[in-house]
Amino acid sequence: MEEIKKNDDKILSAQNVHTTFRTHGKSVKAVRGVSFYAGYQEILAVVGESGSGKSVLMKSILGLMPENAEVTADQILFMDKNILEMTPEQQRKMRGKEIAMVFQDPMTALNPLRTIGFHLTEVLKRHRGMDKRTARKEAIAVLEQVGISSPEKRLDQYPHEFSGGMRQRVLIAMALCCRPKLLIADEPTTALDVTIQAQILELLKKLQDETGMSIILITHDLGVVASLSRRIMVMYGGLLMEEGLTEEIFYSPKHPYTRALLQAIPKPQAGDRKRLEPIPGMAPSLIDPPDGCPFAERCKFACEQCEKGIPKYRVYSDTQRAMCIFSAEELDARERKVD
Amino acid sequence: MAKYIVRRILTAIPMVLLITILCFALMHFAPYNAIDAMTTPKMSPETIELIKAKYGYDKPLFIQYLRWLNGILNGNFGYSIVTKQSIAGDLAVRIPNTIKLVLPAYATAYILAIILGLLAGSHKNKAADKVIDGISSIAIAVPSFWFSMLLIFILGYKLKLLPIVGMHSVGKEASMADFLRHFIMPFITLTFTFLPANVKFVRSSTVTQFSEDYVLVQRAFGASRGEIMFKHVCKNVLLPIITRLGMALQLLVTGAIITETVFGWPGVGPYFIKAIQGMDYPIVMIILVLSSTLVILGNLLSDILYCITDPRIREMG
């Protein structure tokens, strides 16, 4: 079903991405054949728990995997350029310039011995060929854009003089330096406290509006993405379990895993005294992943069939598909029976 | 920053005093003392008492200590029991000789270690790393006296290229060429002694830096290998290495005791060894105090260097 096609409304599209780590004679299959796309000017959320392969998938596309990782794919198109056919040097030049990435832990993402200004101007000099003075001016402008006050003074300060939230702003500023077409934000708020999280997400949203870039937001918090993203991808066990528009995922989830995830979100509305429903069990081992659906052993609808081979996608709309042998109606019927 | 440095200097002073007390006490509690070295069993008890009184050994211990300390502070290091020579005068000749040997050797080892360590660390588990790290591991285990014997055997005895003992040939004290010929073998030995531990240190420091998050972030922003190496990793690796310089300060006095002794180099080494063998307590004590004081000074120097180079510490205090 994944015919290779060119699509003008997609900034990034990847077919059948596999990423395998080899360590100590074992291989860890972190991503096991994922196809997805990100549209122009959209915020795509990639949701999944730790070890679901969401970060690895994005790093694989950027060519940021360590040497013991093997990445294969039928095709990875970024603005009609096939990333797989690029030389490492071409890939390097693309990183930071056309696709930028912001990471999870802002506390360790900056070199403690270099000033904020050094970090920013390096990127500007590298990708936009600016001289020192113009780069400095531009760096001040970018810092202002991400909401850092008295940027001129801040430029000469070191990372340890910034709080976590401010460092994440600096990293976002670094990412903005070259006006990338696509920003990949890998759990940008996980290491921050809740009030700061909201600020950073708002900032991302604002910047997306201003610049029109596309954002892929990796997170393990469905609540975070609800108000932000246009589309959501749900990953589990190295596979894409379900994707759809944000409304589709929230209001008519098709996959049992997505449904379980949504039931695990706290809803602090008045009168709602239902207990949260955690998903029992643990994520499957990726060293020796199950032959069938990776969610089968934790799924309340699972049957024998589930363990025989990875299920095919069921397509529900132009935008929504889910990887489950049961259709949504069948699941609804079973749910009533279980209850 | 100035405040921090002043504070560090002030805390170093009691440490040095403590060390003098420790050295003095250790020597006092040793099974023999200076009187044993000066007397013979045939002497009458009266004579021994007389000698004790002459050298102040009849006074209470703390008086002995204070007089000794007072001497050191005034640059009077006392006299050798065996040769009756002024220790300060002896050291004034011996220490420069040792420095002439240790300083070039350490500098060479240090620079080589940075180059080899960075090379190995940045190519972790590749051929270059395996060779450099492997040889370092072996070299750490090679005793310096054995290595110097090997050099003497090959270069001095078999090939007869170099003199095997001393710093100058008799009558050629002013000849630089003659000095260099004597210098080569102990220099190689010492460089070889200092090198492996430093290489390993630089290497592991480099490996750690390369695994830091900021390296991945730099890659994500399109930095090339060279840029990551020279604009980021290098500086972060050099920081702990600079502080090793301070730690090496005491090597200038006691860094080559074995090598100097093997090659008969007229430095502190043979002087110290001979003093130990001859129970020449004043010399042993002075050298102990001197080298441990240099350790403290070296630490102080490291801290100050750290303070100057690391912005995170610069802010403090």
Automatic annotation (TrEMBL), chain A:
The keyword Cell membrane applies. Keywords: ATP-binding, Cell membrane, Membrane, Nucleotide-binding, Transport. It is a peripheral membrane protein. GO terms for biological process: peptide transport. GO terms for molecular function: ATP binding; ATP hydrolysis activity. It is found in: Cell membrane. This is Peptide ABC transporter ATP-binding protein. It comes from Lacrimispora celerecrescens.
UniProtKB/TrEMBL annotation, chain B:
Keywords: Cell membrane, Membrane, Transmembrane, Transmembrane helix, Transport. Pfam families: BPD_transp_1 (PF00528), BPD_transp_1_N (PF19300). The chain crosses the membrane at residues 12-35, 101-122, 134-159, 179-199, 237-263, 283-308. Residues 95-302 form the ABC transmembrane type-1 domain. The keyword Cell membrane applies. Signal peptide: none annotated. It is found in: Cell membrane. Its main location: membrane. It is a multi-pass membrane protein. GO terms for biological process: transmembrane transport. It comes from the Bacteria. One of its GO terms (cellular component) is plasma membrane. Belongs to the binding-protein-dependent transport system permease family. This is Peptide permease. It comes from Lacrimispora celerecrescens.
